[in-house]
Amino acid sequence: MKALSIRNLTKSYPNGVQALKGIDLDVEEGDFFALLGPNGAGKTTAIGILTSLVNKSDGTIQVFEHDMDQSLEAAKACIGVVPQEINFNQFEKVQDIVVNQAGYYGIPRKQAIPRAERYLKQLDLWEKRDAPSRDLSGGMKRRLMIARALVHEPRLLILDEPTAGVDIEIRRSMWDFLREINVQGTTIILTTHYLEEAETLCRNIAIIDHGRIIEKASTRRLLDKL
Ligand code: ADP
Ligand code: ADP
């Protein structure tokens, strides 16, 4: 099954910038996929549309065969997103941030609490569970973003520049964690402008530039060409 199927996705901002100029993209279930491109290519716009924060101008998107125009709630339930901007309430406690997110998806607290514990332990944040998020380091905040995005157990996890500004050691441990959940069955799409991140982690890569996909290939084929 396809985790994501995008056709002719187009976005013009009110100021006239054409951020996406007709994107076609398919991502298979189980894939670890990179959307690679320079700043300004349209990556964040694409993710904004996938998370309903940005309105598309044209095109269709299906998430595990749920059309985002026709079955938005079903599509959203399949997606977990780690945005680029850290956006926690700085006074809210780490564990509450994860548990409360589950409420947006109608998941009972009783079910959310053990899940939050599991993800906080896996992401090495359990000792910080009672700390307000403002006490966390940058790398911890990034990991908390991932825990929050997983609490409804999405089939597709989308990360926008997940390791931007994170030091190398924490980056490696985040990579290991993402590999692990991919092996366990979660489809992953990340955006990055680091070729190294795409080639280390991802099985397939699409290169986006100026709002167009200019290359799509398996990582191995792409590296042979470069
Ligand atoms: P990336 O994430 O690849 O850096 P973006 O999606 O952020 O790319 O940006 C794509 C293009 O759209 C850029 O030219 C950017 O300046 C423009 N853009 C992004 N957001 C807005 C906005 N809210 N209003 C107008 N233009 C925008
Ligand atoms: P803030 O006022 O700081 O945006 P919110 O309580 O509105 O705080 O949101 C906290 C987090 O939950 C944000 O990351 C936001 O993206 C996410 N969120 C808010 N509303 C929803 C929703 N309806 N479904 C899924 N996530 C949501």
From TrEMBL:
Signal peptide: none annotated. The chain holds residues 1 to 226 of 317 of the full protein. It comes from the Bacteria. This is ABC-2 type transport system ATP-binding protein. It comes from Natronospira proteinivora. GO terms for molecular function: ATP binding. Keywords: ATP-binding, Nucleotide-binding, Transport. Residues 4-226 form the ABC transporter domain.
